[in-house]
Amino acid sequence: MAAILQSLGRTVTAGFALLIVIALLVGATGQSIKFDWAYWTFFMRWLHILSGVMWIGLLWYLNFIQIPTVPTIQPVEHRAAVTKFILPNVLFWFRYGALATVISGLALAYMNGYLLEALTLGRSTIAIGIGMWLALIMAFNVWFIIWPNQKKVLGLVEASADEKAKAGRIAMLTSRTNTMLSIPMLYCMAAQSHGGF
Q: Do 4 and 58 belong together in one domain?
């Protein structure tokens, strides 16, 4: 077991293998999966939740853990390890988690037949529509504000020390904006089908 858990790739593969075993066990009880439209709609919802957990989990990690902790690291030289090794990986999964969440969410809304109604804030989909718009704003922030500024901070784009400091502040404030928006966004996403409004 330790050989599996020491590798992230093997751990994730084992998670999917465990899911297949559970599906087979449930199927053995007579509750087999029917690969119909309802199943694929459910599967898209699962992908949406899975990618959303990745995206918002990393957003909250950045805002609740990394941003407040890095300035306290002593000696100061050790802070560079976060910027050089941890942050680039976090930002990769953060960006693509956001992209996967948006694509799977839009696909899910389309599969359920309410995409246009939600995006136009139709009466019967107003909660999920507001959640979708908040998520779209957040994803825009990730790709078009946070990431371009973080590329300066990380040294992937040439920038002076002043430009890096300014870029870091803009990225942080935009990330905090996304953290603020994530609270009502998550509520609206859950409220639509679970009686929150």
A: no
Q: How far is CA 34 from CA 31, 137, 168, 169, 190, in A?
A: 9, 36, 49, 50, 26
Instruction: Compute the distance between CA of residue 76 and CA of residue 1 in angstroms, rounded to an integer.
Output: 38
Neighbours of 197 (CB within 10 A): 11
Q: Please tell me the pTM assigned to this model.
A: 0.92
Residue 70: in which H helix or E strand, if any?
none
What count of other Cβ atoms lies within 10 Å of the Cβ of residue 146?
A: 27
At 72 the three-state DSSP class reads: helix
- What's the length of the chain? 197
For residue 16, the enclosing domain spans 1-33
User: Do 137 and 147 reside in the same domain of the chain?
Assistant: yes
pLDDT of the residue at 193: 85
Upper half-sphere CA count for residue 80 (Cβ side, 13 Å): 4
pLDDT tens readout for residues 74-125: 999 999 999 899 999 999 999 999 999 999 999 999 999 999 999 999 999 9
On the question of a cis peptide bond just before residue 184, with omega within 30 degrees of 0, the verdict is no
